Predict the structure.
Amino acid sequence: MTERMGVLSSDGRCLQPSPLAARAMLRPAARRLAAVGIGFAGGWAVLYGALMPFGLGLTLGLAEDCFAPCAAGAALGLLLHGLGALSLRSLCQLCALGAAVAARWLLPQKFVPAALAGCGTLTGMALCFALGSSGADLLLYSAADALLAAGIGFGLRKFAPERPGMGTLLVGAAVAAALGSVRWGWFSPGVLACAAAELALCCRAQKFAALSGSAVLGAALCAADPALAPAAAGLGCATAAAAVLAPGRRVETLAAYAGGCVSGVLCVQPPGNAFGLLFSACGGMAVVCLLPGGWLVPVADTPQSGENAPAPARSAAASTRLEAVAQSLSSLAETVNAVYEGLPRRREGFRWVIDNVHDTLCFNCGRRETCWKQEYTATMAGMEALRPLLEQNGSVETAQLPGQLSRCIHPAALCAAAGRSFALYRSRKEARIHSEAMRTALTEQYSAVAEALGVLSEQLGRPGDPEPYKSSRVAEFFTGLGAPPQECAVTLDDLGRTHAAVTLPRTRFTPQELAALAGEVGHICRRTLEVPQVLSCKGMTTLLFSERPALRAVFGAASAAARGEVSGDAVQQFCSPTAAQMILCDGMGTGRPAAVDGNLAAELTARLLKAGFTAELAARLVNVALALKSEDESGATLDLISVDLYTGTARLFKAGAAPGFLVHGGRVRAVGEATLPMGVLGGVNGQSRVVHLTAGDYAVLVSDGLLVDGAGWVAKQVELSAAAGDAPEKLAETLVETARIRAQKTGRPDDITAAVLRLEKSG
């Protein structure tokens, strides 16, 4: 929501100030006025009949815009508490307040100098008076005040009272102690204020804040007046009853609070003396009943730090931020393309070469009028005749000048000017093509990364259903091992599968230890878990446990180089926590250059898949990497299959790859059509397909060298091997060896590779 600050006239005066502007002007005054009130309470409060630490402590701890008003209020409270009589204690406190204020003015944002000035002045003056006739009591009490004031100030510096936490509790304790020392017969305003504050927190369902507030405020009441100890006990019982039995429900909370208050007071105080305290507590309840309903709307307890925030809340926040970054990157790519499309195009053809020769050579020639006006047609025909010579050789000799230009009186200069102009034209054309390729690569990267972040954002936005009991038990298990986790979360995903994530300080685990941890955590979660995936980053180690899938993958691969020992084909086979991944990349050509492209494409694709990218996004990024790898043309096919080991759903993606083969139910079929490889075009022309596989099925990926003699024999061999139950390694070797023999007969050698995956039931 956006609010206007006001309507400005032509001379800059604000004609219609908005509520937001008025609030902005009044807020500093309200803060200073509140600081005066808090300081007055701190100066008035006396603990155990002798200690007065709050006035100096609040002056040391409040913010830079509030400490001076607080000191003024504390000085006023000190003077009025003694009914105008200036005692030695009050004099020491006033001098300490002045010293603290002076130190904070001279050295802003510095706590230690202000604390030394205030506490040192308080203790020093007490020492001077104690050496006289005042005795040692003044020195002891003043030293205790100084220590407590330093602690209060330090706490307020670390935990600002504007945010719920220790700072708010310290300010509340000062106010409760000040009001607790005031008694009007049987009525206690301190009990009334504490009851109202605690009941309001219970009505807002802030049970932890209410319980901690009741403990601190009750202690402040007892310290101000020991006779209020029964009231503090009653308020503590009332808060516990309301926070536990009916948090957030106004009527039920009020009933539970009243019942707990009566029970608590009567348990520690005879009925005759309890009525006054109960009357004060009832006054606080009445104040809460008169408050507007909007002030008591239940809210969730606010965690004190980001480390204690619930994991779903952190996931939602991270998801939102990732989505915002994704939108920004996508918008940036669109903006770059829009700006490029809006720029004027320079139509530079061979005519630019002719114009440049005219401007650099002919413009100052005496025959310019004859050549470029009277005989314009013949001159242009001669210039156009130079074009094939320049494109073929990059320069032209005098003897090669066409007949239309034989009348030129500077033939050597004409040839040199034409060569320079054509070289400049060609360099500018190459620079333009290069810049357009760089722009295309840049925007393609932005778009691909934006889509990837969007996918990760969606995944983080669905963290699964948490299981707090199992999470706490897993955390207790690791704590018992001597490695208390920083975070521990056990969740159920949309399909009911159990996942556990445990973050520890940087720790190394052996394979045997990881297997043992999987067994113990699985026993706690009542699930069979796989060996955890280990992620290490910035001094932290995260163990990702996943429920054992229904299927497992068995891989096999074989390859034969066309010439020598270097093959341009590259294979990557691995299992992520939930899927089996198999990648086959075929670099363009043969030998080492093709091997560089193939291995680069396969390695980058594998890394991106492990990081959570989809096949389409990984292909787009790899396409950019191949396009920018070098000035030479680079390209590689991408053949990828990803099988969900829980459901058997297989996703195939092909970009320029040869057809693959799937065996399902004992029958083989070819999948894939001809497309262009990666690194050739600005984008990726790929094909995606989704199929379903079960235990016993095969997936076979092959390079085009294996299909040199057609795909019919490959399909028959795959079907026969699958029927015989051959191992994936044996099937891959059979295909490669047979294809190599067939290629030798045809005389068309090429790199030959086969990658095989077979699904089996998980043990």
